[in-house]
Fold each of these.
Amino acid sequence: MSITRVWIAGAGGRLGSALYHRFSGNTDYKLVTSDRDVPIEDAREAGRFADLNHPDVIINCAGLTDVRACEEKPEEAYKINAIGARNLAVAARRIDAKLIQISTDDVFDGDDDAALCEFDDAHPTTMYGKSKYAGEKLVRELTDKHVIVRSSWLYGVGSYDFVDRVLDNAKKDGKVVLPEDEISSPTSADALAGFIECLMHTREFGLYHASCDGSCSRAEWAREILRLNGMDSIPVISAAENTELRPRFTLLDNMMLRITGLYQMPDWKTALADYFSTKKGGAHK
Ligand SMILES: NC(=O)c1ccc[n+]([C@@H]2O[C@H](COP(=O)([O-])OP(=O)(O)OC[C@H]3O[C@@H](n4cnc5c(N)ncnc54)[C@H](OP(=O)(O)O)[C@@H]3O)[C@@H](O)[C@H]2O)c1
């Protein structure tokens, strides 16, 4: 097999770190990575990096993922999540690279109680969701060789996340307070990285939903995190309202994965158990 040159933009984050761990040391890949040292919203910087390294595949894991920061600074959200995606799409087209653009379940408004597939219309209500959806549209318009991958409730090493917050709150306060009515599917960055590696070697293009199988509420997710860490006695109390500034019901249906038979995402509980066993085994720092 010939060597695949891969650029991971946002390599220090949750998904970027999982991809880096997956590919580094594998001689089938030549990796180049970037974070804020190559600000994706800067067309010249992003273009120059692409021209210099000439990747076969660009994986855009970079983004402003802090939903509160997106609400407070909408222009910053559009700059990074939309214009950044546009710049990588333009660079990818110029060097004939495949662009894998990572997006989110927050492109849906979450008002209904049915799982959402790739053929459902997006209708974002948060600034994070709106800016990510704008990024999707620009990628679609600007380069044919693209795959947009929407996922949900990502966790992994790299950034402080929900899993870390639950464990910290449990230790500090002796309880965790979370909504029972916010539903989606927790997805481990490692599991998503497995699908992204598969995508790199296919001729599949277009839009894919890729969340772990099954669904739960934020509170149920927290209970499972505590159980796997021997902290079952810590109560998870129902929050009076959704405190996460996120749409309520954004469970993704991975319909395109089923139709194409391309990949099977693991069940969310299995992926969460794997995450902790790998972490405890010291494979991740
Ligand atoms: N987290 C979720 O629950 C979730 C769910 C579904 C989809 N997604 C999407 O999946 C992708 C990866 O998410 P993640 O959770 O791995 O994100 P993350 O942990 O927040 O990582 C994002 C990375 O992008 C970098 N970055 C931020 N602004 C940048 C810029 N202007 N130029 C270059 N790099 C920049 C960050 O660097 P700094 O750390 O220095 O800011 C960080 O390393 C994102 O596109 C996100 O929208 C996330």
Amino acid sequence: MKVGIIGGGIIGLSSAYYLNKAGHHVTIIDQGDLTTGCSFGNAGMIVPSHIIPLAAPGMISKGIRWMFNSTSPFYVKPRLRGDLIKWGYHFYKSATKEHIAKSAPSLKELSLFSKSMYQQLAKELPFDFGYHERGLLMLYKTKETEHEEAEMATLAKQHGLEAYVISASEVQKLEPDVKVDVRGGIYFPGDAHITPQLLVSQLINYLKEQGVVFQTNTTVNDFIIENGTIKSLMTSTQDFEFDEVIIATGSWSGGVAARLGLSIPMQAGKGYSFTLPQVEKNVCIPSIFLEARVAVTPMGDSLRFGGTMEITGVNHSISMNRVKGIVEAIPTYYPEMKVALPEVKDVWHGLRPCSPDGLPYIGRSSKLKNLTIATGHSMMGLSQGPGTGKLVSEIIDQGNLSVNLAAFNPQRFDF
Ligand SMILES: Cc1cc2nc3c(=O)[nH]c(=O)nc-3n(C[C@H](O)[C@H](O)[C@H](O)COP(=O)(O)OP(=O)(O)OC[C@H]3O[C@@H](n4cnc5c(N)ncnc54)[C@H](O)[C@@H]3O)c2cc1C
């Protein structure tokens, strides 16, 4: 079949990989040059340990507290926009214990499946993308966070994941080269990490060699629909016709879906990262500074710091105050690591595609016969990318699904 994928981030590329392998003729259409989406400069963590969606009890009160501090890790720009109000309403309704209990098994199943796809990719792709299974350390400095995280570890264990509450000296043993100043941590040995730009850039070249067509700098503006089927895609350069269409447009998906008369609430959650090249005494295990909400990932000799979640719409401005918040957090956890504020040109930003309930949208549209949706992975798109791509190919081939997709129904807010 001729399959058109709108969006060439990790979700679109992974879908292209498995669809191409299954023998389909795949075209990826992207409005940019494939380096402008969210999949390039992220923290590279593969995190089956993350079974709690963003919409969780406590997030709203924490978020309100953070909103009044310009260096804090979270910010929602108040706007009188229907899409934000609708998203906020669904977020509020989802921030419950019941929602967590319902979502955790589905998130875990998708993430574990995706990790197994990464293990396969690391073996079958003809290039190295820095895949390592060293686990994840969640580091905390306060008693309050210790309490919250111990509960999280208990929940993870109840779901069959390995999780260990460890002392400060045990953390230090795991990080022999970098001095760590924490109260303790949770160690999730089942997590992994990659170097995302190595995967994405080499995967693009590999897919081109395999015959996948890339139409870059081409924006899909509208669709022609006939008899409940997408007949053609109208883009900034030309019209395209496909047998099957996949929407993998990340933070832009709300607007793209609206063109098809579908409601996919989505907000862009902007985050920043910067990377220290050639760090002499590097961190060994990816970590999250819990109070500061900063992710730290060793990538070869370099070390990447990422963080912040700004719900400010699709915009590309960089708030150096928030980058400063990340920089200032570093020596509070790693007291011997003094990092200068990077120049604006060295700060990467990405727009996380955030659904209001913290769950991705994966599945066939019930309204349009030849449409599949795969988007909204928020903070876990890299982690869940290959799993989602494989599921997309299973949907298109109408085979057995490797993961139960009920929780990820793209129509769940369509009423
Ligand atoms: C600081 C930071 C750290 C992160 N760390 C991690 C991590 O450690 N682990 C993890 O799992 N996730 C992480 N994430 C999240 C992860 O990066 C995202 O979830 C993921 O990249 C989303 O991928 P995507 O393919 O859905 O979207 P994108 O990569 O944004 O791709 C969407 C593509 O669609 C294209 N597009 C949009 N509209 C149109 C249109 N109309 N026509 C044509 N093309 C269009 C865009 O140009 C874009 O290339 C992080 C994010 C940030 C910001």
